[in-house]
Fold:
Amino acid sequence: MPVLALVSAIFVVGFEQIVQWKYGATGMVGLLLLTVGIKAKSPALSSAGAVVLAMLVTGPAL
Structure:
C-alpha cells in the first residue's frame, strides 16, 4: 500500500510541475480550483477550474 501512495504522489507532483512549466501560474490556479472543487464536491469551484484550464489550452487557437 505505501508503494501505491508514493507512486500516486510522484505522479501528482510531476503533473503539477508540467502544468506549471507549460501554462504558468494561471495553470496552477486552474488546477488548484479544479482539484479543490472535486474534493469539496463543489460544482462552482470545479467548473471555474475547468474553464480556466480550457481557456489556457484553447487561448492561442481563438
Q: What stands out?
A: The chain is about 85% helix and 0% strand. The radius of gyration is 13 Å. The mean pLDDT is 85.
